Amino acid sequence: MSPLFPFRSPVRSRVAEVVLWMVLAAGFWLWPSYLALWSQILIAGLFALSYDLVLGYAGIVSLGHAAYFGVGAYAAGVLSRHGWGEPFSGLLLAAVCAGATGFLTSFLVVRGRDLTRLMVTTGIGLLLYELANRLPDITGGNDGLIGMEMSPVLGVFRFDMYGRTAYGYSLAVTFVLFLLMRRLVHSPFGLSLRGIRDNPGRMLALGYPVHRRLIAAYTIAAVYAGVAGALLAQTTQFVGTDVFSFNRSAEVMVMLIVGGTGMLYGGLVGAAVFMLAHHYLSDLNAVYWQFWLGAFLIAIVMFGRDGVLGACLRLSRVRLRQRPTGSL
Amino acid sequence: MLTSFLGVLFDGLAYGMLLFLISVGLSVTLGLMNFINLAHGAFGMLGGYVCVLALQSWGLPFFVMLPAVFVVSALAGLVLERVLYRYLYRRSHLDQVLATIGLTFMSIAAATYFFGPLQQPLQVPKFLSGQVSVLGVDLNIYRGFLLAVGVALTIVLTLALERTRFGASVRASVDKPRVAEGLGIRVGLVFQITFAVGCGLAGLGGALGVQVLGLDPVFPLKFIVYFLLVVAVGGTSSLKGPLYAALLLGVIDVAGKYYVPQIGAFIIYAMMIVLLVIRPHGLVSRQ
Asked: Who contacts B103 (Cβ-Cβ below 8 Å, separation ≥6)?
């Protein structure tokens, strides 16, 4: 059995999770001048969670996940640019658009094996990137989509220049979606995805509709990615064609790997580590950043793949085992 | 109409030949070791930069530069194979993707650090520049040269693969590594040498392609789809598959960008997705 069933033990899981979300909620006071950065971290964490469902749970190696992020971002952006600035309906529309895109493309993705999937997802991402560049009337092309006007959240909280509303809004949406995903991955559906990841042939033999499960997982992940994209568009009130870029797809993979795959919170932890490192290191020099990022990726592959969260869990498990009472 | 079509065909074939040279090593890596090497384009880029340095800073003659580029790229491949790649053969595809993307990032950063982010300007040597008119079609001499080099190298490679003892070991190792090992062929060594030659050819392709493909630090990412496509469409069982695939791809890409520039890059990506959906194991696959 995989050693990484982190939050299986109900007591420990709930404590760790509650603490995590309380710290994030306390962010208003803990890092008041970095709220804009932290709402980006939450959004990246949500995007990485979506990718975790694809890679960590369903085992599909994708290098084009930014496609759905971008569709969501543009859906929300275009809606608000045409005068409908209510945030939650924007999220809903983005979710529907990204989900539809995900559902339609999933049929192409779930066929074939790793290399084929890798290339098909890369192709989908590049195709949408080209499309966004070629349709400047809708997307603003290279200049990006400007002139988004957002209404206050719930009609009360205006998007302010300190990012307080952006942070609270991102945190609330991320929290709710994490709860839903937590339920999903611990459900029989989530377990069957892990089974498919580890041995698709056996799952097929056991009578599971492998293709349909993968299509469902891919579509749900696309919905999540779309919401993350829409959050980014709404909180920054700008969408550029870089939402579709290959780099974004590669980065979300890096974040998830840094945090740890198949552990629900790996994406969020990885996003925080990645974005904070990026924030402080790329001030030094953008070129160094990319170099060390590459070196770090190779190091992760060479020396243990379960990421920061996995390493923490291993440490905590060792310490717990050393306790004389020993049991959880 | 016909003349423009012939011109496009000619350019497309030259372009395809470059793609073939760069990707042929990748088809060995993927075919022999089932190894996903996303950093393959980095060797092409290395060749390109060595070419620029050799011609502009060291003043080497063009025909001395080409073998030098081959040797440098092949050595780089050999070193990386020893230091990094051999630890990844038995790892999952995800690990291979991650490590080679990491390597790609590092190569991009290194190239930016040493050469700056801009396109490298490079003049075609005088005796290869200009155009000749053949039957009313203006043909670029340099592209004709590319075609000639490509054809010559394909013949050499085919002969080496089909007529030499080493070529026989390569084919045996591709077909059934376990049996080849059992017969006393050192599959690991065969692979190292083939890998190095593949990297050398990629470097050569990158050097020859500076004027056609362009050369900037994002080269490995920009063209990775093309290289993978050549291998995926062409399969890995012989040289012919990747060659035909590369030529087809080159012609379609050039024709697409010439006749319907509005949808330019779509054609390639759409074609890739459609092909992979119809034939998930490649057009000329052995499965």
From this structure: A294, A298, B38, B39, B42, B80, B84
Say yes or no to pLDDT of A173 above 90. Answer: yes
3-state SS of B64-130 is HHHHHHHHHHHHHHHHHHHHCHHHCCCCCHHHHHHHHHHHHHHHHHHHHHHHCCCCCCCCCCHHHCC
Residues 111-140 of A with CB under 8 A from B: 111-116, 118-120, 122-124, 126-127, 130-131, 134
Q: Please answer whether residues A101 and A222 qualify as being in contact, where contact means their C-beta atoms are separated by less than 8 angstroms.
A: yes
Pick the residue from chain B with its C-alpha nearest to A126: B269
Nearest Cα neighbor of B43 from B58, B32, B29 is B29
* A-B contacts (CB, under 8 Å): 119
CB contact under 8 A, B276 and A120: yes
Per the CB < 8 Å rule, is A116 touching B109?
no
Lowest-confidence region among A207-221, B79-93, B133-147: B133-147
- At a CB cut-off of 8 Å and minimum separation 6, what does B163 contact? none
Average pLDDT over residues A94-121: 87
d(C-alpha B143, C-alpha B73), whole Å: 23
Of A230, A67, A225, A224, nearest to A148 by C-alpha is A230
User: Which among B98, B106, B112 has the least Cβ separation from residue A295?
Assistant: B106
What token pair was written down for B33? 């070791």
Of B196, B275, B220, B208, the residue nearest B29 (C-alpha): B196
Give pLDDT tens digits for A241-279. Answer: 888 888 889 889 989 988 888 888 889 999 998 888 888
Kindly report, residue by residue over B167-217, the tens digit of the pLDDT.
Answer: 888 888 877 888 888 888 888 888 888 889 989 999 998 888 888 888 888
- Quickly list H helices, chain A: 10-25, 27-30, 35-52, 66-81, 87-109, 114-134, 136-139, 164-186, 188-198, 200-205, 210-236, 246-259, 266-281, 286-302, 307-322
Structure tokens at B155: 């013949």
> Is A302 in the B-facing interface, judged by CB distances under 8 Å?
yes
Asked if the model's pLDDT at residue A1 lies above 50, the reply is: no
Question: Where do the H-state alpha helices sit in B164-239?
Answer: 165-175, 177-182, 187-208, 210-213, 219-234
Q: Rounded to an integer, what distance in angstroms lies between the CA atom of residue B21 and that of residue B226? A: 12
Helix H, strand E, coil C: the string for A57-102 is: HCCCCCCCCHHHHHHHHHHHHHHHHCCCCCHHHHHHHHHHHHHHHH
> Are residues A194 and A133 in contact, defined by beta-carbon separation less than 8 angstroms?
no
Instruction: Show the tokens assigned to B85.
Output: 């790649």
**Structure letter (DSSP) for residue B132:** E
pLDDT tens-digit map of B220-253: 888 888 888 888 777 766 778 888 888 888 888 8
> Are the beta carbons of B281 and A246 separated by less than 8 Å?
no
pLDDT at A324: 44
